[in-house]
Design goal:
A divalent metal cation binds at residues 65-66, 104, 330, 334. Belongs to the GTP cyclohydrolase I type 2/NIF3 family. InterPro entries: DUF34/NIF3, DUF34/NIF3_bac, DUF34/NIF3_sf, N-reg_PII/ATP_PRibTrfase_C. One of its GO terms (molecular function) is metal ion binding. The protein contains twelve helices and 15 strands. It is an alpha/beta fold. The chain folds into three domains: 4-100 and 335-360, Udp-n-acetylmuramoylalanyl-d-glutamate--2,6- Diaminopimelate Ligase, Chain: A, domain 1, CATH 3.40.1390; 110-129 and 240-328, NIF3 (NGG1p interacting factor 3)-like (Udp-n-acetylmuramoylalanyl-d-glutamate--2,6- Diaminopimelate Ligase, Chain: A, domain 1), CATH 3.40.1390; 134-232, Alpha-Beta Plaits (2-Layer Sandwich), CATH 3.30.70.120. A six-stranded mixed sheet has the order 5-10-12-13-14-11, sandwiched between helices. It has a five-stranded mixed sheet with strand order 1-4-3-2-15, with helices on both faces. A four-stranded antiparallel sheet has the order 7-8-6-9. Helix 9 links the parallel strand 12 and strand 13 (304-308). Helix 6 packs antiparallel against helix 7. The longest helix has 16 residues, at 337-352.
């Protein structure tokens, strides 16, 4: 059986809450983490139409990129569209989880999907927001409990390297121990030296998951006293951040690039500001509303900046600073994360061997029409 809390834990392994920008509400916003789940709806955002879709299709959980509660709610009223939507979800017992800027920052998240769709190379983080400290966990496990402990630590957040999960290294060997008076051994007898076939299981753990991973390991391990080591890693820490900057497969004129972006993002319309003939080799991207990071893009040497929700005066400021801007809209720069969420959760469900249907919303749309 899969519960709401399991889906939340899986999403948090990918888009860890610690990656979110300060003040951004992420995580389970509505519902009971202990509620069983058989259907999950994934969406870019939760609108009244999407809420009705979730209820009609029998979803027990909605996984959204945008928060349903972004600012503290001081009322939930039937004569208010947002209040009516929340009441409908509560009455139908539909839980709501969101991963916002943590999913923008996370490997394989919103901005990496833009990079992939546009074929950028030599990619780096646009605006660093933090650095990840990593630890190496090594634990000695009897052979018959190896898979159980491995699954436990990886489910708790260990074993992630880039876009790969459950990364471990395992070495077989002989463990020795002699239970003394007062011990209650899982294997062996008091006063007798034991030699046991064991596996040394090694994996990497980010600092913010270390306590949870160790707790999961201890709970899954059969020994009364578990032999394990935790090492701080001295390798260069990984930098996390918002946005990406990379090189186009081939330089393009600004107008040509705008047309290319429109096609690759299947956007109903794209606008740009700057010299249409200016050559662009290095492109900065930030899905959603990214003009707050335009100066970072300029400082990083971007020839142009792709984002959405560009305001008039922000565009003028960018032009004055010598940075052309391409606005493909909020929806078109973020929508590509939804099928990725679906595929990720489907893979986690399959690995569990559970029967949970994960599907994208078919009610979410670009709110603007173009003429």
């Amino acid at each position: 059986m899969v519960k709401v809390g399991d889906i939340v834990a899986w999403m948090d392994e990918w888009a860890r809450p610690a990656l979110a920008i300060d003040g951004d509400p992420v995580g389970l916003q509505l519902g009971d983490p202990e509620k069983p789940v058989t259907k999950v709806l994934a969406t870019l955002e939760l609108t009244p139409a999407v809420a009705e879709e979730a209820v009609a299709r029998g979803a027990q959980l909605v996984v959204s990129h945008h928060a349903v509660l972004y600012r503290p709610a001081d009322r939930i009223r039937e004569d208010d569209p947002a209040g009516r939507m929340l009441r409908r979800l509560i009455q139908a017992d539909v839980a709501v989880y969101n991963a916002h800027t943590n999913l923008d920052v996370a490997p394989g998240g919103v901005n990496d999907q833009l990079v992939e769709r546009l074929g950028l190379v030599d990619v780096e983080v646009l605006a660093p927001t933090g650095h990840e400290r990593m630890f190496k966990l090594a634990v000695f496990v009897p052979v018959d409990h190896h898979r159980q402990v491995l699954n436990a630590v990886c489910s708790a957040g260990a074993g992630w390297i880039g876009g790969y999960s459950s990364c471990t290294f395992n070495i077989s060997g002989k463990g020795t121990f002699k239970p003394e008076e007062g011990a209650n051994p899982y294997i062996g007898s008091v006063g007798k030296l034991e030699e046991v076939d064991e596996i040394r299981l090694e994996t990497v753990v980010p600092a913010d998951r270390l306590n949870a991973v160790v707790d999961a390991m201890l709970a899954a391990h059969p020994y009364e006293e578990v032999a394990y080591d935790v090492y701080p890693l001295e390798r260069p820490v990984k930098t996390f951040g918002i946005g990406r900057i990379g090189s186009l497969a081939k330089p393009m004129a600004l107008k040509e690039l705008a047309v290319f972006i429109k096609d690759r993002l299947d956007a109903p319309g794209v606008r740009f500001c700057g010299d249409a003939s200016q050559r662009v080799s290095r492109l900065a991207v930030l899905g959603g509303s990214g003009m707050g990071w335009a100066e970072e893009a300029r400082k990083k040497g971007a020839d142009a900046f792709l984002t959405g929700d560009v305001k008039h005066h922000d565009a003028l400021d960018a032009l004055a600073a010598g940075l052309p801007v391409i606005d493909a809209g909020h929806y078109s720069t973020e929508r590509w994360i939804v099928p990725v969420i679906v595929a990720y959760l489907q893979a986690r469900v399959a690995a569990r061997g559970a029967l949970v249907e994960v599907f994208p919303s078919d009610r979410i749309r670009e709110p603007f029409a173009f003429v």
